[in-house]
Amino acid sequence: MKTDSDQRIAEKILQVADLENKQVLEIGCGDGRITSLMVGKPKQLTAIEPDAEKIREARKKVSGADFRIGSGENLKFPDKCFDLVIFTLSLHHQNSKLAIREAGRVVKDSCNILIIEPVNEGEVERIFAFLRNEDQATLEVQKSISESGLNLEHSEVFHAKWIFENKQDLYQSLFEYYDMSFDADTVLQISDLMGAKLDTCPIVLQDIMIIQSLKKY
User: Fold this and answer.
1) Per the omega criterion (within 30 degrees of 0), is the bond before 50 cis?
2) Where is the Methyltransferase type domain (predicted)?
3) Taking each helix axis from N to C terminus, what angle separates 96-106 and 135-146, rounded to the nearest 10 degrees?
4) I need a surface site. Which of 9, 87, 143, 160 has the fewest CB within 10 A?
5) CA pair distance 16, 41, nearest whole angstrom
6) Residue 200 within any structural domain of the chain
7) Is residue 174, in this structure, part of any structural domain at all?
8) Has this prediction a pTM greater than 0.90?
9) Does residue 153 fall inside a structural domain?
């Protein structure tokens, strides 16, 4: 399996936000894949993730960022200390209303919160939903954004690709991604959704995401 998702996310972040000479906080950095593509651009890049094992991996693989264990729902930082806060595909994994409120607390006045989220209608998202359905959580994110009291300055849908050699590679990659055992019923559901496309080689799936920039006044 190959994907340009991380690269596309990093490209969009750099297009929408100015990181130069900024104090930046990334929330939900995972093992640092996207963090690594931003290193060297901000004055200081702090990245947090609640999973301690992923933070250990990030520290081993990526230099130039301050990796810490932490949650977006309870940020261990003082008020107004960052020039930019970025949620990289992480806001729907937590209480989005609380996390946006916390981000608004730690970002400076007249500065931005950047949110990257999956779009439920994407091919990748529709297939992944058979293993772990996050549709409601992503809808809650949009509700939290609209109710945040922050100004939505920019909203843009963009795309990435996931490429699988064949259907065996697709199934193996999906179950490994979620660390789940192979399930025949799930495979049947995916087969019904994909139809003839499942027999193409390679299988190219469209990943749809949205990037939104909120400004705090």
Assistant:
1) no
2) 25-110
3) 40
4) 143
5) 14
6) no
7) no
8) yes
9) yes
Query: Residue with structure tokens 């950047």?
Result: 114
Range of the domain at 113: 2-119+133-161+208-215
Tokens 């264990």 sit at which residue? 69
Q: List the structure tokens of 79.
A: 């008020």
Q: Is residue 152 part of a domain?
A: yes
Per-residue confidence of the chain (217 residues) as pLDDT tens digits?
999 999 999 999 999 999 999 999 999 999 999 999 999 999 999 999 999 999 999 999 999 999 999 999 999 999 999 999 999 999 999 999 999 999 999 999 999 999 999 999 999 999 999 999 999 999 999 999 999 999 999 999 999 999 999 999 999 999 999 999 999 999 999 999 999 999 999 999 999 999 999 999 8
Please say whether the beta carbons of 116 and 158 come within 8 A: no
Residue among 125, 123, 159 at smallest CA distance from 4: 159
Please report, as a single letter, which amino acid is at residue 66. D
Report the C-alpha gap between 106 and 84 in whole angstroms. Answer: 9
CATH number at residue 61: 3.40.50.150
